[in-house]
Each structure stands twice: as structure tokens, then as C-alpha cells.
Structure to design on (264 residues):
């Protein structure tokens, strides 16, 4: 399949990931902040999820991790990745880290019960750069070969499943750009809850996401060129936005959500 990213206006080089695309679909100004290196603080759930993903990949590529070797495996994954820096930033005490590792162990126990038939690769990096200086990047948690042909792209979730379609469709676009074929399936699986979302991308889906990526790049480059602010869209995602303190819409949405959330 020939996939083409529509024309993008000239400007500074721009690197777009699945998380930036998802952020832009929710709130363009928040996505712009991410591209300028403005991120929220590290959190325990994010650290736990990242460590779990490292352990899942280790299992897929190296086999079952013995129970008595699990803690050491986690420590090796932390020490051999940027998780070590995140651990420092969280100022996590040894007792708290031990609790995180035990939660990851629980997720891993569930993960080992998932089928691995057709497994081809873990943490598969995808990259495509247009002639106009737009670089698309993504990392697919796992890739499987389907019995009837084609590939299934899987994203592991360590919390609730949420709404994964935009992220999965970005991966589908990346796969089509990199492999000249549409994936047979894209799938998100919550290891915690057992929820599963699977869909079959169409050529129309791929073309739509390609157009949206071009629109995203155009909006960002225009903002960088003339200093204009992008549209703000308030919603549940505002709680985790790195620019919440400077956003009236976001603070209002967060106040409403806080009042509507039952207190323990």
C-alpha cells in the first residue's frame, strides 16, 4: 500500500509520536507544549507501567522469569534504562519500590497467561521522515504474525483500557508507511482488567490519520512561526496536563471534575 503524508508547510523540523498525536486530538495546545519539552512530573503509576512494559518485553524475548529471580530482573530493567532517572525524580523509598515491584509481579502473572502464538517482535520501533522535515516515530509493544497473513500490532495497558483507538491508528499508519501494508489488526489489551479492544484498520482509516498528521504539523509550525496559541479543549485529560496552571479552560474543567468525583 502506498501511503503519502499530505503536503506540510515549510518550517522547523518536527518529531511527532503517537502520544503527541493523541494529545493533539484532545487539546492542540497541550500537544504543542509537549513538543516544546513541557511535561508533567513523573508519577508512581507511570513508573509502574513503564517497568511492567520492560518486564513484559523481557518475557517475550527471553522466556519465563522465575519467581525467585523476579525482583532482580526488575532491578536490572530499572538500572539499564531511563527508569533509573525517573526513580530518582520520584524520590521513592526502598519500601515503596518494593511495593511497586510486587504490583508489577501481579501484572506479570496475568501477562504470562496471554497466548504468544505468532510472536515476531517486542518494542518494535517505527520511523518515517517526510521530505518536508516531519518525522513520525512510534514503538509498538508487540507484533504478531496472523495465521491468515498480515500482522497484529498490540499495545499493553497496565491500567484501565481507556480509549486507545487514536493511538492504535497512529501505529497502523506508521506500519503502513514502514512496511507498505495495512496491519491485519491493531489491538490494545489491559493486563490489569482483561479488557481488550481490537479493530481492523482500513485504507480509509490510514488516509484519514495521514491527513490529520499533516494538519497537526501545519498547526504546530504556524504557531511556532507567528507565536499564536493553538486551540484549547477542556476534558478529563486536563488533570494531567503540564500547562494546567496557565489554562483557564483546563482549571475550570478540573474544578468541575473534582466536585463530581465522590470522595472516599
Amino acid at each position: 500500500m502506498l501511503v503519502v503524508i499530505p503536503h506540510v508547510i515549510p518550517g522547523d523540523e518536527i518529531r511527532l509520536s503517537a502520544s503527541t498525536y493523541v494529545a493533539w486530538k484532545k487539546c492542540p495546545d497541550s500537544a504543542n507544549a509537549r513538543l516544546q519539552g513541557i511535561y508533567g512530573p513523573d508519577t508512581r503509576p507511570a513508573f509502574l507501567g513503564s517497568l511492567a512494559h520492560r518486564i513484559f518485553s523481557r518475557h517475550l524475548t527471553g522466556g519465563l522469569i522465575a519467581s525467585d529471580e523476579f525482583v532482580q530482573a526488575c532491578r536490572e530493567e530499572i538500572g539499564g534504562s531511563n527508569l533509573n532517572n525517573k526513580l530518582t525524580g520520584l524520590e521513592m523509598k526502598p519500601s515503596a519500590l518494593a511495593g511497586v515491584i510486587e504490583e508489577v509481579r501481579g501484572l506479570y502473572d496475568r501477562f504470562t497467561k496471554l497466548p504468544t502464538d505468532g510472536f515476531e517482535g517486542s518494542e518494535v520501533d517505527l520511523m518515517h521522515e517526510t521530505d518536508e522535515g516531519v518525522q513520525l516515530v512510534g514503538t509498538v509493544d508487540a507484533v504478531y504474525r496472523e495465521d491468515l497473513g498480515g500482522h497484529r500490532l498490540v499495545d499493553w495497558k497496565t491500567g484501565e483500557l481507556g480509549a486507545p483507538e487514536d493511538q492504535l491508528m497512529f501505529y497502523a499508519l506508521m506500519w503502513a508507511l514502514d512496511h507498505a501494508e495495512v496491519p491485519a489488526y491493531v489491538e490494545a489489551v489491559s493486563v490489569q482488567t482483561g479488557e481488550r479492544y481490537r479493530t481492523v484498520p482500513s485504507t480509509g482509516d490510514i488516509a484519514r490519520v495521514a491527513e490529520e498528521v499533516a494538519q497537526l504539523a501545519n498547526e504546530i509550525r504556524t504557531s511556532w512561526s507567528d507565536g499564536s496559541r493553538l486551540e484549547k479543549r477542556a476534558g478529563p485529560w486536563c488533570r494531567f496536563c503540564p500547562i494546567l496552571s496557565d489554562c483557564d479552560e483546563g482549571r475550570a474543567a478540573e474544578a468541575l471534575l473534582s466536585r463530581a468525583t465522590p470522595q472516599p
Summary: The two ends are 52 Å apart (CA to CA). The longest helix spans residues 203-226. The mean pLDDT is 90.
